[in-house]
Protein backbone atom coordinates (compact mmCIF):
# COMPACT_ATOMS: atom_id res chain seq x y z
CA UNK A 1 0.00 0.00 0.00
CA UNK A 2 2.87 2.37 -0.61
CA UNK A 3 2.23 3.24 -4.24
CA UNK A 4 3.15 6.82 -5.11
CA UNK A 5 1.28 8.97 -7.57
CA UNK A 6 3.72 8.05 -10.32
CA UNK A 7 3.26 4.31 -9.74
CA UNK A 8 -0.53 4.66 -9.56
CA UNK A 9 -0.53 6.33 -12.95
CA UNK A 10 1.83 3.91 -14.62
CA UNK A 11 0.27 0.80 -13.13
CA UNK A 12 -3.41 1.60 -13.62
CA UNK A 13 -3.86 4.40 -16.08
CA UNK A 14 -1.03 4.57 -18.60
CA UNK A 15 -1.78 2.91 -21.93
CA UNK A 16 0.15 3.22 -25.19
CA UNK A 17 -0.87 6.36 -27.08
CA UNK A 18 -2.01 5.82 -30.65
CA UNK A 19 -3.46 7.51 -33.70
CA UNK A 20 -4.15 11.17 -33.17
CA UNK A 21 -2.53 11.20 -29.71
CA UNK A 22 0.93 12.61 -30.40
CA UNK A 23 1.97 12.68 -26.74
CA UNK A 24 0.04 10.75 -24.10
CA UNK A 25 0.11 10.42 -20.32
CA UNK A 26 3.27 11.28 -18.41
CA UNK A 27 4.38 14.76 -19.39
CA UNK A 28 3.10 18.15 -18.22
CA UNK A 29 0.44 18.07 -20.92
CA UNK A 30 -0.74 15.77 -23.69
CA UNK A 31 -0.73 16.74 -27.36
CA UNK A 32 -3.37 15.63 -29.86
CA UNK A 33 -4.28 16.54 -33.42
CA UNK A 34 -7.52 17.37 -35.18
CA UNK A 35 -8.07 16.95 -38.91
CA UNK A 36 -8.97 19.80 -41.19
CA UNK A 37 -12.70 20.53 -41.04
CA UNK A 38 -13.06 19.11 -37.55
CA UNK A 39 -14.04 21.20 -34.58
CA UNK A 40 -13.28 20.28 -30.98
CA UNK A 41 -16.22 19.53 -28.65
CA UNK A 42 -15.44 19.49 -24.92
CA UNK A 43 -17.44 18.70 -21.81
CA UNK A 44 -16.70 17.98 -18.16
CA UNK A 45 -18.63 16.16 -15.45
CA UNK A 46 -17.88 15.46 -11.82
CA UNK A 47 -19.27 12.75 -9.57
CA UNK A 48 -18.95 12.89 -5.79
CA UNK A 49 -19.32 10.02 -3.33
CA UNK A 50 -22.48 10.41 -1.28
CA UNK A 51 -23.94 12.87 -3.79
CA UNK A 52 -23.92 11.15 -7.20
CA UNK A 53 -23.42 7.59 -6.04
CA UNK A 54 -23.93 5.92 -2.64
CA UNK A 55 -20.97 5.17 -0.40
CA UNK A 56 -19.86 1.62 -0.95
CA UNK A 57 -20.55 1.62 -4.70
CA UNK A 58 -18.24 -0.82 -6.52
CA UNK A 59 -15.25 1.13 -7.84
CA UNK A 60 -15.73 -0.48 -11.26
CA UNK A 61 -19.18 1.09 -11.45
CA UNK A 62 -17.76 4.47 -10.36
CA UNK A 63 -15.12 4.34 -13.10
CA UNK A 64 -17.69 3.30 -15.69
CA UNK A 65 -20.22 5.92 -14.63
CA UNK A 66 -17.75 8.81 -14.49
CA UNK A 67 -16.99 8.21 -18.17
CA UNK A 68 -20.57 7.36 -19.20
CA UNK A 69 -21.95 10.73 -18.08
CA UNK A 70 -19.28 12.51 -20.11
CA UNK A 71 -19.80 10.38 -23.21
CA UNK A 72 -23.48 11.27 -22.92
CA UNK A 73 -22.67 15.00 -23.15
CA UNK A 74 -20.78 14.48 -26.40
CA UNK A 75 -23.57 12.22 -27.66
CA UNK A 76 -26.00 15.11 -27.13
CA UNK A 77 -23.81 17.29 -29.39
CA UNK A 78 -23.53 14.69 -32.14
CA UNK A 79 -19.76 14.55 -31.56
CA UNK A 80 -17.32 11.64 -31.77
CA UNK A 81 -15.63 11.16 -28.38
CA UNK A 82 -11.85 10.77 -28.59
CA UNK A 83 -9.81 11.78 -25.53
CA UNK A 84 -10.34 12.12 -21.81
CA UNK A 85 -8.40 13.60 -18.90
CA UNK A 86 -9.14 12.26 -15.43
CA UNK A 87 -8.91 13.95 -12.04
CA UNK A 88 -9.07 11.44 -9.22
CA UNK A 89 -9.26 12.72 -5.65
CA UNK A 90 -8.86 9.67 -3.42
CA UNK A 91 -8.77 9.18 0.34
CA UNK A 92 -6.11 6.44 0.03
CA UNK A 93 -4.21 4.46 -2.57
CA UNK A 94 -6.14 1.23 -2.11
CA UNK A 95 -4.82 -0.96 -4.91
CA UNK A 96 -7.85 -3.19 -5.28
CA UNK A 97 -10.06 -0.09 -5.48
CA UNK A 98 -7.80 1.42 -8.16
CA UNK A 99 -7.74 -1.83 -10.08
CA UNK A 100 -11.53 -2.05 -10.14
CA UNK A 101 -11.96 1.66 -10.92
CA UNK A 102 -9.59 1.36 -13.88
CA UNK A 103 -11.31 -1.81 -15.12
CA UNK A 104 -14.73 -0.09 -15.21
CA UNK A 105 -13.33 3.03 -16.82
CA UNK A 106 -11.36 1.24 -19.53
CA UNK A 107 -14.14 -1.25 -20.26
CA UNK A 108 -16.28 1.65 -21.46
CA UNK A 109 -13.37 3.63 -22.92
CA UNK A 110 -12.39 0.70 -25.16
CA UNK A 111 -15.95 0.29 -26.37
CA UNK A 112 -15.88 3.85 -27.74
CA UNK A 113 -12.18 3.97 -28.68
CA UNK A 114 -11.61 6.78 -26.21
CA UNK A 115 -8.05 7.32 -24.93
CA UNK A 116 -7.07 8.57 -21.48
CA UNK A 117 -4.37 11.16 -22.20
CA UNK A 118 -3.72 12.85 -18.86
CA UNK A 119 -5.03 14.09 -15.56
CA UNK A 120 -4.20 14.43 -11.92
CA UNK A 121 -4.26 12.10 -8.91
CA UNK A 122 -4.54 13.77 -5.51
CA UNK A 123 -5.33 12.84 -1.95
CA UNK A 124 -8.72 14.08 -0.76
CA UNK A 125 -12.37 13.09 -0.54
CA UNK A 126 -13.63 10.72 -3.24
CA UNK A 127 -14.37 13.01 -6.19
CA UNK A 128 -13.97 11.99 -9.84
CA UNK A 129 -13.88 14.55 -12.65
CA UNK A 130 -13.53 13.63 -16.30
CA UNK A 131 -13.04 16.09 -19.09
CA UNK A 132 -13.90 14.69 -22.49
CA UNK A 133 -12.99 16.01 -25.89
CA UNK A 134 -13.95 14.82 -29.33
CA UNK A 135 -14.58 16.15 -32.77
CA UNK A 136 -17.58 17.23 -34.71
CA UNK A 137 -17.84 18.32 -38.32
CA UNK A 138 -17.32 22.04 -38.78
CA UNK A 139 -20.64 22.67 -40.43
CA UNK A 140 -23.14 21.18 -37.96
CA UNK A 141 -23.42 20.15 -34.36
CA UNK A 142 -26.41 19.76 -32.13
CA UNK A 143 -27.31 22.30 -29.46
CA UNK A 144 -30.16 22.87 -27.04
CA UNK A 145 -31.16 26.07 -28.72
CA UNK A 146 -32.52 25.11 -32.13
CA UNK A 147 -36.09 24.04 -31.27
CA UNK A 148 -38.90 25.84 -33.13
CA UNK A 149 -42.65 26.08 -32.66
CA UNK A 150 -44.36 22.89 -33.83
CA UNK A 151 -41.25 20.70 -33.54
CA UNK A 152 -41.93 17.25 -32.16
CA UNK A 153 -40.24 16.18 -28.93
CA UNK A 154 -38.64 12.75 -28.65
CA UNK A 155 -36.71 10.75 -26.08
CA UNK A 156 -34.63 7.63 -26.54
CA UNK A 157 -35.07 4.48 -24.47
CA UNK A 158 -37.08 4.40 -21.28
CA UNK A 159 -37.06 7.00 -18.51
CA UNK A 160 -37.06 6.61 -14.74
CA UNK A 161 -35.07 3.36 -14.63
CA UNK A 162 -31.99 4.97 -13.07
CA UNK A 163 -33.95 6.73 -10.31
CA UNK A 164 -35.85 3.49 -9.73
CA UNK A 165 -32.56 1.61 -9.61
CA UNK A 166 -31.16 4.01 -7.03
CA UNK A 167 -34.31 3.67 -4.92
CA UNK A 168 -34.02 -0.12 -5.22
CA UNK A 169 -30.38 0.05 -4.08
CA UNK A 170 -31.36 2.09 -1.04
CA UNK A 171 -34.73 0.62 -0.08
CA UNK A 172 -35.26 -2.86 -1.43
CA UNK A 173 -33.37 -5.79 -0.01
CA UNK A 174 -35.14 -8.35 -2.21
CA UNK A 175 -33.26 -8.88 -5.44
CA UNK A 176 -35.43 -9.70 -8.41
CA UNK A 177 -34.69 -9.73 -12.11
CA UNK A 178 -36.40 -6.33 -12.33
CA UNK A 179 -34.50 -4.66 -9.50
CA UNK A 180 -31.24 -6.06 -10.86
CA UNK A 181 -32.07 -4.54 -14.23
CA UNK A 182 -32.94 -1.15 -12.70
CA UNK A 183 -29.77 -1.04 -10.59
CA UNK A 184 -27.71 -1.71 -13.70
CA UNK A 185 -29.49 1.11 -15.45
CA UNK A 186 -28.42 3.42 -12.62
CA UNK A 187 -24.86 2.13 -12.29
CA UNK A 188 -24.12 1.50 -15.96
CA UNK A 189 -25.95 4.00 -18.16
CA UNK A 190 -25.51 3.45 -21.92
CA UNK A 191 -24.44 6.72 -23.54
CA UNK A 192 -26.28 7.26 -26.82
CA UNK A 193 -23.23 8.13 -28.88
CA UNK A 194 -24.27 6.53 -32.16
CA UNK A 195 -27.78 7.95 -31.90
CA UNK A 196 -26.27 11.42 -31.38
CA UNK A 197 -24.23 11.00 -34.57
CA UNK A 198 -27.33 9.93 -36.50
CA UNK A 199 -29.36 12.85 -35.16
CA UNK A 200 -26.79 15.42 -36.33
CA UNK A 201 -28.58 15.78 -39.66
CA UNK A 202 -32.10 15.31 -38.33
CA UNK A 203 -32.68 16.94 -34.94
CA UNK A 204 -33.32 20.66 -34.45
CA UNK A 205 -32.21 20.59 -30.78
CA UNK A 206 -30.77 17.95 -28.48
CA UNK A 207 -29.54 17.39 -24.94
CA UNK A 208 -29.02 14.46 -22.61
CA UNK A 209 -31.29 13.80 -19.63
CA UNK A 210 -29.16 13.93 -16.51
CA UNK A 211 -31.29 15.92 -14.03
CA UNK A 212 -34.72 14.57 -14.98
CA UNK A 213 -37.02 14.98 -17.98
CA UNK A 214 -38.98 18.01 -16.69
CA UNK A 215 -35.91 19.95 -15.56
CA UNK A 216 -34.01 19.16 -18.73
CA UNK A 217 -36.94 19.92 -21.03
CA UNK A 218 -37.21 23.27 -19.21
CA UNK A 219 -33.54 23.91 -20.04
CA UNK A 220 -33.97 22.98 -23.69
CA UNK A 221 -37.00 25.28 -23.94
CA UNK A 222 -35.17 28.12 -22.19
CA UNK A 223 -32.18 27.77 -24.53
CA UNK A 224 -34.52 27.78 -27.54
CA UNK A 225 -36.74 30.58 -26.12
CA UNK A 226 -39.70 28.25 -26.54
CA UNK A 227 -42.18 26.27 -24.45
CA UNK A 228 -43.45 22.72 -24.66
CA UNK A 229 -46.48 20.55 -24.20
CA UNK A 230 -45.53 17.20 -22.75
CA UNK A 231 -47.95 14.29 -23.01
CA UNK A 232 -47.29 12.45 -19.77
CA UNK A 233 -48.93 9.23 -20.96
CA UNK A 234 -46.44 8.97 -23.81
CA UNK A 235 -43.37 9.03 -21.57
CA UNK A 236 -41.76 5.59 -22.08
CA UNK A 237 -41.32 3.45 -18.97
CA UNK A 238 -39.86 -0.05 -18.78
CA UNK A 239 -41.92 -3.02 -17.63
CA UNK A 240 -39.27 -3.49 -14.92
CA UNK A 241 -39.92 0.00 -13.53
CA UNK A 242 -43.70 -0.40 -13.71
CA UNK A 243 -43.47 -3.84 -12.15
CA UNK A 244 -41.37 -2.71 -9.19
CA UNK A 245 -43.06 0.52 -8.10
CA UNK A 246 -46.67 1.73 -7.97
CA UNK A 247 -47.88 3.79 -10.94
CA UNK A 248 -47.50 7.21 -9.32
CA UNK A 249 -44.00 6.59 -8.12
CA UNK A 250 -42.89 5.07 -11.42
CA UNK A 251 -44.23 8.11 -13.27
CA UNK A 252 -42.50 10.40 -10.82
CA UNK A 253 -39.19 8.65 -11.49
CA UNK A 254 -39.75 8.96 -15.24
CA UNK A 255 -40.60 12.67 -15.09
CA UNK A 256 -38.29 13.94 -12.36
CA UNK A 257 -35.66 11.25 -11.71
CA UNK A 258 -32.25 12.00 -13.15
CA UNK A 259 -29.36 9.85 -14.33
CA UNK A 260 -31.00 8.11 -17.28
CA UNK A 261 -28.62 9.66 -19.84
CA UNK A 262 -31.10 9.16 -22.61
CA UNK A 263 -31.29 11.80 -25.35
CA UNK A 264 -34.05 14.40 -25.42
CA UNK A 265 -34.39 15.99 -28.85
CA UNK A 266 -36.70 17.81 -31.21
CA UNK A 267 -37.31 17.42 -34.94
CA UNK A 268 -39.28 19.50 -37.42
CA UNK A 269 -42.56 17.69 -38.14
CA UNK A 270 -41.50 17.21 -41.76
CA UNK A 271 -38.39 15.32 -40.63
CA UNK A 272 -40.20 12.80 -38.45
CA UNK A 273 -40.08 10.11 -41.13
CA UNK A 274 -36.26 10.31 -41.12
CA UNK A 275 -36.27 8.78 -37.65
CA UNK A 276 -37.82 5.55 -38.95
CA UNK A 277 -34.57 3.93 -40.00
CA UNK A 278 -32.86 4.47 -36.66
CA UNK A 279 -32.38 1.36 -34.52
CA UNK A 280 -32.62 3.04 -31.10
CA UNK A 281 -36.12 2.92 -29.56
CA UNK A 282 -37.59 6.41 -29.66
CA UNK A 283 -40.78 7.84 -28.22
CA UNK A 284 -42.66 10.94 -29.36
CA UNK A 285 -43.67 12.64 -26.10
CA UNK A 286 -44.86 16.13 -27.00
CA UNK A 287 -44.36 19.24 -29.08
CA UNK A 288 -42.67 22.61 -28.88
CA UNK A 289 -44.96 25.60 -28.30
CA UNK A 290 -44.55 29.35 -28.28
CA UNK A 291 -45.51 29.53 -24.59
CA UNK A 292 -42.47 30.11 -22.39
CA UNK A 293 -43.18 27.16 -20.07
CA UNK A 294 -43.46 23.40 -20.10
CA UNK A 295 -47.07 22.29 -19.72
CA UNK A 296 -47.79 18.67 -18.87
CA UNK A 297 -50.99 17.16 -20.19
CA UNK A 298 -52.72 13.88 -19.42
CA UNK A 299 -55.86 12.76 -21.26
CA UNK A 300 -56.03 16.24 -22.76
CA UNK A 301 -56.06 18.08 -19.40
CA UNK A 302 -53.28 19.95 -17.63
CA UNK A 303 -51.38 17.70 -15.24
CA UNK A 304 -49.28 18.90 -12.29
CA UNK A 305 -46.38 16.57 -11.51
CA UNK A 306 -45.28 16.08 -7.88
CA UNK A 307 -41.66 17.08 -8.43
CA UNK A 308 -39.73 18.78 -11.21
CA UNK A 309 -36.24 17.35 -10.97
CA UNK A 310 -32.87 17.80 -9.44
CA UNK A 311 -30.71 20.84 -8.79
CA UNK A 312 -27.52 20.40 -6.78
CA UNK A 313 -27.94 23.62 -4.88
CA UNK A 314 -31.70 23.66 -4.38
CA UNK A 315 -32.50 20.20 -3.11
CA UNK A 316 -31.45 18.35 0.00
CA UNK A 317 -29.16 15.34 -0.14
CA UNK A 318 -30.12 13.26 -3.13
CA UNK A 319 -28.26 10.01 -2.78
CA UNK B 1 -28.74 31.90 -0.65
CA UNK B 2 -31.04 29.95 -2.92
CA UNK B 3 -29.07 30.16 -6.15
CA UNK B 4 -29.41 27.06 -8.29
CA UNK B 5 -26.65 25.60 -10.43
CA UNK B 6 -27.96 27.41 -13.47
CA UNK B 7 -27.95 30.79 -11.71
CA UNK B 8 -24.49 30.19 -10.27
CA UNK B 9 -23.15 29.58 -13.75
CA UNK B 10 -24.87 32.53 -15.40
CA UNK B 11 -24.13 34.96 -12.60
CA UNK B 12 -20.50 34.14 -11.93
CA UNK B 13 -19.01 32.13 -14.76
CA UNK B 14 -20.73 32.87 -18.06
CA UNK B 15 -18.90 35.38 -20.25
CA UNK B 16 -19.48 36.12 -23.94
CA UNK B 17 -17.68 33.62 -26.15
CA UNK B 18 -15.33 35.10 -28.72
CA UNK B 19 -12.79 34.29 -31.39
CA UNK B 20 -12.12 30.58 -31.74
CA UNK B 21 -14.89 29.65 -29.27
CA UNK B 22 -17.78 28.70 -31.55
CA UNK B 23 -20.08 27.62 -28.71
CA UNK B 24 -19.36 28.59 -25.11
CA UNK B 25 -20.82 27.83 -21.69
CA UNK B 26 -24.41 26.65 -21.40
CA UNK B 27 -24.87 23.66 -23.68
CA UNK B 28 -23.93 20.01 -23.16
CA UNK B 29 -20.47 20.71 -24.56
CA UNK B 30 -18.50 23.64 -25.92
CA UNK B 31 -17.11 23.78 -29.46
CA UNK B 32 -13.81 25.41 -30.38
CA UNK B 33 -11.62 25.52 -33.45
CA UNK B 34 -7.91 25.06 -34.09
CA UNK B 35 -6.06 26.50 -37.06
CA UNK B 36 -4.25 24.38 -39.56
CA UNK B 37 -0.78 23.45 -38.29
CA UNK B 38 -1.81 23.78 -34.67
CA UNK B 39 -1.87 20.85 -32.26
CA UNK B 40 -3.93 20.73 -29.10
CA UNK B 41 -2.08 20.62 -25.76
CA UNK B 42 -4.18 19.62 -22.74
CA UNK B 43 -3.50 19.36 -19.01
CA UNK B 44 -5.56 19.03 -15.84
CA UNK B 45 -4.86 19.88 -12.22
CA UNK B 46 -6.92 19.55 -9.09
CA UNK B 47 -6.60 21.41 -5.80
CA UNK B 48 -8.27 20.20 -2.61
CA UNK B 49 -8.99 22.21 0.54
CA UNK B 50 -6.77 21.08 3.39
CA UNK B 51 -4.36 19.35 0.99
CA UNK B 52 -3.24 21.99 -1.53
CA UNK B 53 -4.32 25.09 0.35
CA UNK B 54 -5.19 25.68 4.02
CA UNK B 55 -8.79 25.92 5.15
CA UNK B 56 -9.85 29.54 5.28
CA UNK B 57 -7.81 30.57 2.20
CA UNK B 58 -9.43 33.55 0.46
CA UNK B 59 -11.63 32.25 -2.37
CA UNK B 60 -10.02 34.75 -4.76
CA UNK B 61 -6.66 33.10 -4.13
CA UNK B 62 -8.17 29.64 -4.65
CA UNK B 63 -9.64 30.70 -8.00
CA UNK B 64 -6.37 32.30 -9.05
CA UNK B 65 -4.27 29.37 -7.95
CA UNK B 66 -6.45 26.68 -9.56
CA UNK B 67 -5.83 28.36 -12.92
CA UNK B 68 -2.18 29.28 -12.29
CA UNK B 69 -1.11 25.67 -11.76
CA UNK B 70 -2.76 24.68 -15.04
CA UNK B 71 -1.25 27.59 -16.98
CA UNK B 72 2.08 26.45 -15.65
CA UNK B 73 1.64 23.00 -17.22
CA UNK B 74 1.05 24.53 -20.64
CA UNK B 75 3.98 26.91 -20.08
CA UNK B 76 6.20 23.88 -19.56
CA UNK B 77 5.12 22.55 -22.98
CA UNK B 78 5.73 25.85 -24.78
CA UNK B 79 2.00 26.02 -25.61
CA UNK B 80 -0.37 29.00 -25.84
CA UNK B 81 -3.20 28.58 -23.31
CA UNK B 82 -6.67 29.20 -24.76
CA UNK B 83 -9.61 27.47 -23.08
CA UNK B 84 -10.47 26.04 -19.70
CA UNK B 85 -13.25 23.89 -18.26
CA UNK B 86 -13.91 24.13 -14.52
CA UNK B 87 -15.26 21.56 -12.10
CA UNK B 88 -16.27 23.12 -8.82
CA UNK B 89 -17.33 20.87 -5.96
CA UNK B 90 -18.69 23.17 -3.25
CA UNK B 91 -20.18 22.56 0.19
CA UNK B 92 -22.69 25.41 -0.28
CA UNK B 93 -23.62 28.15 -2.70
CA UNK B 94 -22.17 31.00 -0.65
CA UNK B 95 -22.49 33.96 -2.98
CA UNK B 96 -19.68 36.05 -1.55
CA UNK B 97 -17.38 33.02 -1.82
CA UNK B 98 -18.41 32.47 -5.46
CA UNK B 99 -17.96 36.14 -6.23
CA UNK B 100 -14.43 36.15 -4.85
CA UNK B 101 -13.52 32.81 -6.44
CA UNK B 102 -14.66 34.08 -9.85
CA UNK B 103 -12.79 37.38 -9.39
CA UNK B 104 -9.49 35.58 -8.73
CA UNK B 105 -10.03 33.13 -11.57
CA UNK B 106 -10.96 35.73 -14.17
CA UNK B 107 -8.25 38.17 -13.08
CA UNK B 108 -5.67 35.62 -14.19
CA UNK B 109 -7.73 34.32 -17.13
CA UNK B 110 -7.98 37.83 -18.62
CA UNK B 111 -4.26 38.34 -18.28
CA UNK B 112 -3.62 35.35 -20.53
CA UNK B 113 -6.71 35.70 -22.75
CA UNK B 114 -7.97 32.35 -21.59
CA UNK B 115 -11.72 31.66 -21.90
CA UNK B 116 -13.82 29.51 -19.57
CA UNK B 117 -15.92 27.40 -21.93
CA UNK B 118 -17.65 24.86 -19.72
CA UNK B 119 -17.57 22.67 -16.68
CA UNK B 120 -19.65 21.33 -13.85
CA UNK B 121 -20.83 22.68 -10.50
CA UNK B 122 -21.72 20.08 -7.88
CA UNK B 123 -22.34 19.91 -4.16
CA UNK B 124 -19.56 18.19 -2.23
CA UNK B 125 -16.29 18.85 -0.42
CA UNK B 126 -14.26 21.83 -1.66
CA UNK B 127 -12.37 20.45 -4.66
CA UNK B 128 -11.47 22.50 -7.74
CA UNK B 129 -10.39 20.89 -11.01
CA UNK B 130 -9.43 22.83 -14.10
CA UNK B 131 -8.72 21.32 -17.46
CA UNK B 132 -6.77 23.59 -19.74
CA UNK B 133 -6.29 23.37 -23.48
CA UNK B 134 -4.21 25.44 -25.82
CA UNK B 135 -2.30 25.13 -29.02
CA UNK B 136 1.27 24.48 -29.95
CA UNK B 137 2.88 24.48 -33.37
CA UNK B 138 2.78 21.08 -35.03
CA UNK B 139 6.51 20.77 -35.47
CA UNK B 140 7.84 21.33 -31.95
CA UNK B 141 6.73 21.27 -28.37
CA UNK B 142 8.68 20.84 -25.18
CA UNK B 143 8.69 17.58 -23.22
CA UNK B 144 10.48 16.19 -20.19
CA UNK B 145 12.20 13.57 -22.24
CA UNK B 146 14.66 15.39 -24.48
CA UNK B 147 17.62 15.99 -22.12
CA UNK B 148 21.00 14.65 -23.25
CA UNK B 149 24.34 14.08 -21.55
CA UNK B 150 26.17 17.37 -21.04
CA UNK B 151 23.05 19.55 -21.30
CA UNK B 152 22.98 22.43 -18.83
CA UNK B 153 20.17 22.59 -16.28
CA UNK B 154 18.38 25.89 -15.61
CA UNK B 155 15.53 27.16 -13.48
CA UNK B 156 13.58 30.39 -13.74
CA UNK B 157 13.07 32.79 -10.84
CA UNK B 158 13.77 31.81 -7.24
CA UNK B 159 12.89 28.53 -5.55
CA UNK B 160 11.49 27.82 -2.11
CA UNK B 161 9.42 30.99 -1.80
CA UNK B 162 6.08 29.18 -2.01
CA UNK B 163 6.99 26.60 0.63
CA UNK B 164 8.36 29.43 2.77
CA UNK B 165 5.14 31.35 2.23
CA UNK B 166 3.04 28.40 3.31
CA UNK B 167 5.18 27.94 6.43
CA UNK B 168 4.80 31.65 7.14
CA UNK B 169 1.01 31.38 6.78
CA UNK B 170 0.94 28.50 9.23
CA UNK B 171 3.63 29.44 11.74
CA UNK B 172 4.43 33.12 11.75
CA UNK B 173 2.00 35.63 13.18
CA UNK B 174 4.29 38.62 12.61
CA UNK B 175 3.68 40.16 9.20
CA UNK B 176 6.75 41.68 7.59
CA UNK B 177 7.40 42.80 4.04
CA UNK B 178 9.26 39.54 3.49
CA UNK B 179 6.56 37.22 4.83
CA UNK B 180 3.93 39.12 2.84
CA UNK B 181 6.03 38.58 -0.28
CA UNK B 182 6.48 34.87 0.43
CA UNK B 183 2.76 34.33 1.11
CA UNK B 184 1.93 35.97 -2.21
CA UNK B 185 4.40 33.68 -3.92
CA UNK B 186 2.51 30.70 -2.47
CA UNK B 187 -1.01 32.05 -3.10
CA UNK B 188 -0.40 33.75 -6.43
CA UNK B 189 2.25 31.92 -8.43
CA UNK B 190 3.17 33.53 -11.76
CA UNK B 191 2.96 30.94 -14.52
CA UNK B 192 5.90 31.25 -16.92
CA UNK B 193 3.87 31.19 -20.11
CA UNK B 194 5.95 33.62 -22.17
CA UNK B 195 9.20 31.98 -21.07
CA UNK B 196 7.79 28.61 -22.16
CA UNK B 197 7.05 30.03 -25.61
CA UNK B 198 10.58 31.46 -25.88
CA UNK B 199 12.13 28.16 -24.80
CA UNK B 200 10.33 26.20 -27.51
CA UNK B 201 13.21 26.68 -29.90
CA UNK B 202 15.99 26.58 -27.32
CA UNK B 203 15.37 24.01 -24.56
CA UNK B 204 15.98 20.28 -24.97
CA UNK B 205 13.63 19.35 -22.12
CA UNK B 206 11.29 21.28 -19.84
CA UNK B 207 8.82 20.87 -16.99
CA UNK B 208 7.32 23.01 -14.28
CA UNK B 209 8.31 22.67 -10.63
CA UNK B 210 5.21 21.75 -8.67
CA UNK B 211 6.39 19.03 -6.28
CA UNK B 212 9.86 20.40 -5.48
CA UNK B 213 13.12 20.74 -7.41
CA UNK B 214 14.65 17.38 -6.42
CA UNK B 215 11.49 15.36 -7.11
CA UNK B 216 10.82 17.13 -10.37
CA UNK B 217 14.42 16.90 -11.57
CA UNK B 218 14.21 13.17 -10.82
CA UNK B 219 11.14 12.99 -13.06
CA UNK B 220 12.81 14.92 -15.88
CA UNK B 221 15.85 12.62 -15.66
CA UNK B 222 13.67 9.50 -15.60
CA UNK B 223 11.73 10.68 -18.65
CA UNK B 224 15.01 11.41 -20.48
CA UNK B 225 16.70 8.22 -19.23
CA UNK B 226 19.49 10.40 -17.83
CA UNK B 227 20.91 11.55 -14.51
CA UNK B 228 21.98 14.93 -13.20
CA UNK B 229 24.51 16.71 -11.09
CA UNK B 230 22.90 19.55 -9.16
CA UNK B 231 25.08 22.29 -7.67
CA UNK B 232 23.18 23.13 -4.51
CA UNK B 233 24.94 26.47 -4.04
CA UNK B 234 23.65 27.67 -7.39
CA UNK B 235 19.99 27.14 -6.56
CA UNK B 236 18.48 30.65 -6.61
CA UNK B 237 16.82 31.83 -3.40
CA UNK B 238 15.19 35.18 -2.75
CA UNK B 239 16.52 37.59 -0.13
CA UNK B 240 13.04 37.40 1.43
CA UNK B 241 13.35 33.63 1.90
CA UNK B 242 16.90 33.85 3.24
CA UNK B 243 15.91 36.72 5.54
CA UNK B 244 12.95 34.88 7.05
CA UNK B 245 14.31 31.39 7.71
CA UNK B 246 17.68 30.00 8.77
CA UNK B 247 20.02 28.83 6.01
CA UNK B 248 19.26 25.09 6.33
CA UNK B 249 15.53 25.55 6.29
CA UNK B 250 15.62 28.01 3.40
CA UNK B 251 17.72 25.56 1.37
CA UNK B 252 15.34 22.76 2.25
CA UNK B 253 12.41 24.80 0.95
CA UNK B 254 14.32 25.56 -2.25
CA UNK B 255 15.26 21.93 -2.87
CA UNK B 256 12.19 20.05 -1.68
CA UNK B 257 9.36 22.57 -1.28
CA UNK B 258 6.75 22.47 -4.00
CA UNK B 259 4.37 25.02 -5.49
CA UNK B 260 6.87 27.44 -7.01
CA UNK B 261 5.67 26.82 -10.58
CA UNK B 262 8.96 27.98 -12.00
CA UNK B 263 10.28 26.22 -15.11
CA UNK B 264 13.02 23.61 -14.92
CA UNK B 265 14.69 23.07 -18.29
CA UNK B 266 17.79 21.89 -20.06
CA UNK B 267 19.70 23.30 -23.02
CA UNK B 268 22.55 21.93 -25.09
CA UNK B 269 25.76 23.68 -24.00
CA UNK B 270 26.08 25.25 -27.46
CA UNK B 271 22.69 26.91 -27.06
CA UNK B 272 23.42 28.59 -23.73
CA UNK B 273 24.10 31.94 -25.39
CA UNK B 274 20.58 31.94 -26.82
CA UNK B 275 19.23 32.41 -23.30
CA UNK B 276 20.97 35.79 -22.94
CA UNK B 277 18.24 37.81 -24.60
CA UNK B 278 15.44 36.42 -22.42
CA UNK B 279 14.05 38.80 -19.81
CA UNK B 280 13.13 36.19 -17.19
CA UNK B 281 15.81 35.68 -14.51
CA UNK B 282 17.41 32.29 -15.08
CA UNK B 283 19.95 30.34 -13.04
CA UNK B 284 22.28 27.60 -14.27
CA UNK B 285 22.12 24.98 -11.51
CA UNK B 286 23.75 21.85 -12.87
CA UNK B 287 24.22 19.48 -15.77
CA UNK B 288 22.78 16.31 -17.20
CA UNK B 289 24.87 13.15 -16.71
CA UNK B 290 24.70 9.58 -17.91
CA UNK B 291 24.25 8.31 -14.35
CA UNK B 292 20.65 7.27 -13.68
CA UNK B 293 20.31 9.37 -10.53
CA UNK B 294 20.36 12.97 -9.36
CA UNK B 295 23.52 13.72 -7.40
CA UNK B 296 23.66 16.91 -5.34
CA UNK B 297 27.05 18.57 -4.89
CA UNK B 298 28.17 21.39 -2.64
CA UNK B 299 31.70 22.81 -2.81
CA UNK B 300 32.60 19.91 -5.07
CA UNK B 301 31.51 17.17 -2.62
CA UNK B 302 28.38 15.02 -2.61
CA UNK B 303 25.63 16.58 -0.52
CA UNK B 304 22.66 14.68 0.98
CA UNK B 305 19.55 16.85 1.27
CA UNK B 306 17.16 16.32 4.22
CA UNK B 307 14.07 15.72 2.14
CA UNK B 308 13.39 14.99 -1.51
CA UNK B 309 9.96 16.48 -2.14
CA UNK B 310 6.30 15.81 -2.17
CA UNK B 311 4.21 12.84 -3.27
CA UNK B 312 0.50 12.85 -2.55
CA UNK B 313 0.36 9.20 -1.64
CA UNK B 314 3.67 8.79 0.15
CA UNK B 315 3.78 11.66 2.58
CA UNK B 316 1.60 12.60 5.52
CA UNK B 317 -0.67 15.62 5.43
CA UNK B 318 1.18 18.47 3.77
CA UNK B 319 -0.90 21.53 4.36
Low-confidence stretches of chain A: 314-319
Report the β-strand fraction of chain A as a percent range.
25-35%
N to C succession of SSEs of chain A: HEEEHEHEEEHHHEHEHHEEEE
Question: What is the terminal separation of chain A in angstroms?
Answer: 30 Å
Largest interface: A-B, 72 and 72 residues
Helix content of chain A: 25-40%
Characterize the biggest β-sheet of chain A: 7 strands, mixed
Instruction: Provide the structure class of chain A.
Output: alpha+beta
Alpha plus pi helix count of chain A: 9
Mean residue pLDDT of chain A: 92
Rounded to the nearest angstrom, the radius of gyration of chain A is 20 Å
Q: How many strands appear in the DSSP assignment of chain A?
A: 13
Amino acid sequence: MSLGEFEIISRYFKKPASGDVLLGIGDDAAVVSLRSGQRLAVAMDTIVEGVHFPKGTDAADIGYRALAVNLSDLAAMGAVPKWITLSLSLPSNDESWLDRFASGLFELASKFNVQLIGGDTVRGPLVVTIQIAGWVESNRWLTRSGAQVGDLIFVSGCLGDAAGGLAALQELSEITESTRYLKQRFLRPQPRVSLGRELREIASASMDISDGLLTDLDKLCAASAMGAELDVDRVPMSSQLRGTFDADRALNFALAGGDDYELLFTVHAADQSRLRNLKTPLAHIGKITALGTVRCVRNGATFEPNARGYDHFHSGARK
